[in-house]
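User:
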Amino acid sequence: MKHPQRDKKRAGCSLVFLLTCGFLCLALLTGRVQTAFARSARFVSIQCQSRDDLHEFNDNIYLGKTLSRQILRKDVITVEDEVNAKVDFIVAKVQTVLNMYPRGIHFTLVILHDKKAVGRAYNQAYHKKVNYKAYYSLSRKTVYISADDASLRVLSHEIGHMVVDHFFKVRPPYNIHELMAQFAEKHVGD
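Assistant: Predicted structure:
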């Protein structure tokens, strides 16, 4: 016995499935879907193009035994949880080192594969070729960092820029910005 309603439902589900697949393929072909991982934490929204890059980044952000113990006390189950906990912890540490606690601090962290990808992102935004491991975009409130070259020092430096940017209503001169970021870089691991 035929069931016309069941057949209509199946046809509707098939159509929805095909349309969804079509849109995903179109998005992939046009480059609109670029993130394999995106998640928000207390201070940061993290975007990463591949899980391998996320793992590489996590492995390269070594906090040392003392700081790592503090991270492990949190609800860390997945590598995503660990990265979020590490970045939030580093932001709090940079704020303490700089004695700057801006309200409503939140930024985006984009983890790219290597320095070439960071350079391409910088060139796309500012039309200038660079060979940076990482940089902070003041206008986008975003840190771009190479997973291959990530370290506690590099990340602390860029987060230092971000904290200074959020703290002052009128942006300080670049040299002052850089000195504060270098101070954060030097003292976060202490």
